[in-house]
Design goal:
Number of helices: 8
Distance between the termini: 73 Å
Shape: rod-shaped
CATH class of the largest domain: Alpha Beta
Number of strands: 6
Radius of gyration: 39 Å
Strand content: 5-15%
CATH superfamily of the largest domain: GAF domain
CATH topology of the largest domain: Beta-Lactamase
Length: 317
């Protein structure tokens, strides 16, 4: 039984009960109020003197008859409000249903706008790559930084970041230390709700933090809430680089490795964070999930690297 059928059944039961209550109340008024009041009133004044009823007794009898007639008229002419109440309840349900549909339409409109902004991200990044072909001397970092600057506003909308959110979008490049050891991930481009110079961004060692884990495993990492038991110890910030505000600013996050030319190790990692719990959630939701925008950025970064390397080869030939 669907909701509409259940609502109609409830309305029918409500209306039936209301009608029974109406006739029960009418019976009580007619029998107990009208008849009893009339009998009691008349009996009160029927003990007449030998000389006959007095004027006050006659007046009392007439008043009792008038009260009985008035009560009888009220009981007969009383309107049945049950149908009006049932209609009012049905109207409220219709309004609620319409409100739910309007909310759904608003959600669809928001998702449509985010889809447009995601398309804008891809288009703006492509434009930067095309212009890089005509601008010799640009490094990979230059191109990627320009891509993030050009698409930053659209990316923030596509990522569904709210104005009050504390968020980050960062591109990390893997570098091999000169003294050996594990690769280090250095931020070469970023967009943040709270501005920060790229040189002040933390460096992550492979296998450390969400960026380092995504790099080492060559697979994306999506964390709905970093404060969930067990996740902080695996993906949290190293103790020597932790900051007091980390637990508030970095709650939900995603990291996507940048894979180029089927290399064994990723070129780097694209990350995004938000202080809202469950912002990046792996469960399917309506429309484009924020993680899709991060994937798109990682793909465009990979494309920019491939184009830049091909351009270098052509210039060296």
């Amino acid at each position: 039984m669907d909701f509409s059928e259940l609502s109609e059944k409830l309305s029918a039961l409500f209306l039936s009960r209301a009608r029974r209550m109406k006739w029960s109340a009418r019976f009580v008024r007619m029998v107990l109020l009208v008849v009893a009041a009339a009998v009691a009133g008349v009996a009160q004044f029927t003990q007449f003197e030998p000389s006959g009823p007095t004027a006050w007794q006659i007046a009392g009898i007439c008043a009792s008859i008038v009260v009985g007639i008035g009560a009888l008229f009220s009981a007969i002419t009383e309107e049945d409000a049950s149908e009006a109440l049932a209609l009012a309840r049905q109207s409220v349900e219709e309004v609620r249903s319409a409100e739910a549909r309007l909310t759904f339409i608003d959600d669809i409109d928001d998702e449509f706008n985010r889809s447009i902004e995601l398309y804008q991200v891809m288009s703006l990044c492509r434009g930067v790559i095309e212009r890089a072909l005509c601008t010799p001397g640009l490094s990979e970092e230059d191109i990627i930084s320009r891509m993030l600057d050009a698409s930053g506003r659209s990316a923030a909308i596509a990522l569904n970041f709210a104005q009050a959110d504390q968020w980050t979008v960062c591109v990390y490049r893997a570098e091999k230390p000169s003294n050996g050891g594990s690769e280090l991930l250095r931020c070469i481009a970023q967009r943040r709700a709270i501005p920060c110079d790229t040189t002040h961004a933390r460096v992550w060692e492979a296998g450390t933090g969400i960026a380092g884990v995504a790099f080492s495993n060559r697979g994306e990492v999506v964390i709905p809430d970093l404060q969930t038991t067990g996740l902080r110890s695996v993906f949290g910030t190293a103790a020597n680089s932790a900051k007091p505000e980390d637990t508030e600013r970095y709650r939900s996050m995603v990291a996507i490795p940048v894979l180029v030319d089927q290399q064994e190790d990723p070129w780097g990692v694209v990350t995004a964070t938000n202080d809202r719990v469950d912002h990046f959630d792996s469960d399917a939701v309506m429309g484009i999930r924020p993680v899709e925008t991060v994937r798109a950025l990682a793909n465009m970064v990979a494309l920019a690297i491939v184009v830049h390397r091909k351009l270098i080869k052509v210039s060296e030939a």
